[in-house]
Amino acid sequence: MLNAEYNCKCEDHRIIERFGLEEAFKIIQFQPPCYVQGHLPLVQVAQSPIQPGLECFQGRGIHHPSGISSLLYFVEVEDSSNCVKSPSMGTLMGVYLPCMQNIFGVILFLRLTWMVGMAGVLQSFLIVLLCCCCTMLTTISMSAIATNGVVPAGGSYFMISRSLGPEFGGAVGLCFYLGTTFAGAMYILGAIEILLTYIVPQAAIFYPSGAHDASSAMLNNMRVYGTVFLILMAVVVFVGVKYVNKFASLFLACVVISILSIYAGAIKSIFDPPEFPICMLGNRTLIRDQFDVCAKTIVKDNITVASKLWENFCHNTNLTTENCDEYFLLNNVTEIAGIPGAASGILKDNLWSNYLEKGEILEKAHHPSVDVAGQKSSFHLYVLSDISTSFMVLVGIFFPSVTGIMAGSNRSGDLKDAQKSIPVGTILAIVTTSLVYFSCVLLFGACIEGVVLRDKYGDAVNKNLVVGTLSWPSPWVIVIGSFFSTCGAGLQSLTGAPRLLQAIAKDNIIPFLWVFGHGKANGEPTWALLLTALIAELGILIASLDMVAPILSMFFLMCYLFVNLACAVQTLLRTPNWRPRFKYYHWALSFLGMSICLALMFISSWYYALVAMLIAGMIYKYIEYQGAEKEWGDGIRGLSLSAARYALLRLEEGPPHTKNWRPQLLVLLKLDEDLHVKYPRLLTFASQLKAGKGLTIIGSVIQGNFLETYGEAQAAEQTIKNMMDIEKVKGFCQVVVANKVREGIAHLIQSCGLGGMKHNTVVLGWPYGWRQSEDPRSWKTFIGTVRCTTAAHLALLVPKNVSFYPSNHERYNEGNIDVWWIVHDGGMLMLLPFLLKQHKVWRKCKMRIFTVAQMDDNSIQMKKDLATFLYQLRIEAEVEVVEMQNSDISAYTYERTLMMEQRSQMLRQMRLTKTEREREAQLVKDRHSIARLESLYSDEEDEGDTMPENIQMTWTKEKCDAEKRNRGSAVGSFRDLISIKPNQSNVRRMHTAVKLNEVIVNRSHDARLVLLNMPGPPKNTDGDENYMEFLEVLTEGLERVLLVRGGGREVITIYS
């Protein structure tokens, strides 16, 4: 009963209200397809498998959402009469006929004879062969792509974008859109040329004011009539594509009849050539409509009088020769047959090329003549070449005549089975048209006189269409047929181009085009059609068929090039999803087609080719930086993966040479309680040091269990990525979850990177506030990381006071970067300032290198050697040698060492017993003051055992006595601190640190950045606290310090 009440015309659009959501879904699922469209905007949902009964939404610009709740998208329907059936166009009407119409457009009837006359039969064969091979190979590639999945509306754009990515797809798609739009303008110009030159010349609005103004008047006429034709065609397309399809049969019938008339005329010319005499003055071809009789004089009433030809050359009627053209007097006037016929043997004269320069007179070779220049004022009586010709020019003009191969794929949204129709229809169309072109080239060369072939507008045959002179039964057959065929091709272009633009706009990869994704209620692209008409009007204002054609060639060739590239890339990568039903393809054929496309681009016009590539490149970069990100599983991503794999395998062959060494950074970041980056200037420093080159990995550790904190790790990773974008850091992010932060850092140091693409330098933040913290974990994690990097033979950079480091927006117009070279570390201290100076922040800073000498060292020789070394390294820097005098240990140094050791001893004695730790844990728990995540590198670790949640304290007499003894010993230990004496080795180290710090502060207190060798940690872990104190003393009083520790290898070389 439910099925009976539902019909495909959607007459009752309240079916959901009547039967409920579940029943309505069952009806839609099992009933014939129906297209529902109401007042809601088009719903663009992510593609999903098509449910039975919802096929109508596919290919109409709407993708149905799967599931019962998805019906809510279509509940608010007002006008149910808009429902139409799903696309049902087959191979013949949907692909074959549109391709035939576009291919058999304006060039076949208006320029092919002229091309044969200029290039000769042999070179014309070569031109046709090159162009047809290009389109055939492209069609093979296109067929493979088209049969590798569903091809919705957008055809060629969809295939390229899903194969090569949105950047390539958008760039080539827009170029192809412009080419298709200008093609419509070219077809309209061809129709107007036929109309005003051969059908009704009297309809011209502008007339030449002089003998040399005919060209400009014709251009103005074409602009006016072209605009009118464009408006009419746009109205037809706006009314509906179904009307264009109805006209298509009529237009194609005209094309077929016209071509058949050419073959019939060629056969007839064997035994009965048509009468189209050509008047020759010497070997020069005359314009026939300037006179009536091909003779200098005529006999009228037995009196010899001057002919019209005499009047044109001599400007009198009394047969006097004073003002006559010299060439006219010395040469005879003869008539030859314009169509000698296929049996005349004229083919051998037309085999070879006869290229002309602009303004050159059409001459018949080997025809008797006296070679004199003649008067230039008489040149308008001869048939002249209107443009300079060459093989390259003819390739550019002819190529648009084979560019109709995308006509079917552009309308793939209207095809019932695009995967089957596009390959079969397009290949059949190319085979058919190629045979016609080859045969026409041969027939034109065998039947028509060479000077007539070179006559572009038929001036020598009394303004007849040259190809029409060969046709049978009448020239009007081909004139009318060619007119309708060009009109039909223009309609096809104006139909396909807006749909292509609509498909690009709906993908939203170019934000400013979004408005062109909308259209009428039935999905027709209204706004896209309007823009197409405006752009086509620009082509019509050019008004020259020969100027528009090479522009089209560039855009189409670029599109075909990328279609071949897409097929080749997919084939070579052998991606699992590459399973085309069309099996007759090979990557070598695709590369051959791509090579031919590229060659034809530069053969026809190298500067147009560069301009087209520049336009495509600009669109590509715009989409890359401004467009919406799309993940379509494109081939470029697969190509990148293959290239990366190949490069990584190559890097595995051995360590990089010193010349190729650059710091590949692993930046260890600290996060706060809210998982925000605590010191973002670490990222700023990394971006300034790298300037987008090499490898940068941003690592962080979250303490906990991976299963429980996975979501937290993902959030932290996204936060870091956002901060990387803000700081313009090009690199990767890795967040590790570990039970202990120290272990997580060790994991990052060991496992980050892949193969040969691993970090060689670790950037580690300074543990601020370690002195004030009673918890030793803050500096123990730091020293542990230093030891890990040393064990892994990695370089280490520790920026101290990183909050004072400059941002990327600051500029240092003056100042110094000071390098204190205490220990040779492989050249790290030399290389880092050079790399920093490549960035705009540090570019204007000067580099100074200080080295320390003892009193017994030769300071002058040291300075000279270091200056020579820097010169060989090609590093510009000022060199200074600082002499440190051997002085007695000062009281300040002794006191500083004493304070350091007292603090260490006191902290050791203050370590709580297990019982007190338990009591303290209970107290902290009661006060709710425990911090969840105080320090990423240290504070959140527990070195002791995990504290129990509930603690029961049971005091016995033994426990009480033990507690008193512990307290008593602690008091005694505190008394011992007063009488402690510092260790002499610590005193010496402190003395060195204090004296060195005094020298550095004295020389570099105003430096923008100080780079300093970082001493290694002690082998005995008992001295870790003293090590931290030494580093503090060494860097006191300096605003920005970068502690550098080499990785144990040379990183800079004097060799090129």
Could you explain the architecture of this structure?
Residues 680-797, 810-1056 form the SLC12A transporter C-terminal domain. This is Solute carrier family 12 member 4. It is found in: Cell membrane. This protein has 1056 residues and is α/β, with parallel strands linked by helices. 51% of the residues lie in helices and 8% in strands. It is built from 34 helices and 15 strands. It has a 10-stranded mixed sheet with strand order 8-7-6-9-10-15-14-11-12-13, with helices on both faces. Strand 11 (816-821), helix 28 (828-836) and strand 12 (846-854) form a beta-alpha-beta unit. Helix 8 runs antiparallel to helix 20 (545-573).
What is the gist of this entry?
By secondary structure, the chain is of the alpha/beta class. The chain is built from 34 helices and 15 strands. The strands form three sheets. A ten-stranded mixed β-sheet has the order 8-7-6-9-10-15-14-11-12-13, with helices on both faces. The protein has a three-stranded antiparallel β-sheet with strand order 2-1-5, with no helix packed on it. Strands 3-4 form a two-stranded antiparallel ribbon.
Mean pLDDT: 77
DSSP summary: helix tally = 34
Strand residues, percent = 5-15%
Distance between the termini: 87 Å
Kindly state the number of beta strands. 15
> What global shape is seen?
elongated
**Strand sequence of the main sheet, in spatial order?**
8-7-6-9-10-15-14-11-12-13
Regions with little confidence, pLDDT below 50 for 5+ residues = 1-85, 911-915, 920-955, 970-975
| Fraction of helical residues | 40-55%
Q: Report the C-alpha radius of gyration, rounded.
A: 43 Å
* Largest sheet, strands/sense/barrel: 10 strands, mixed
The secondary structure category is alpha/beta
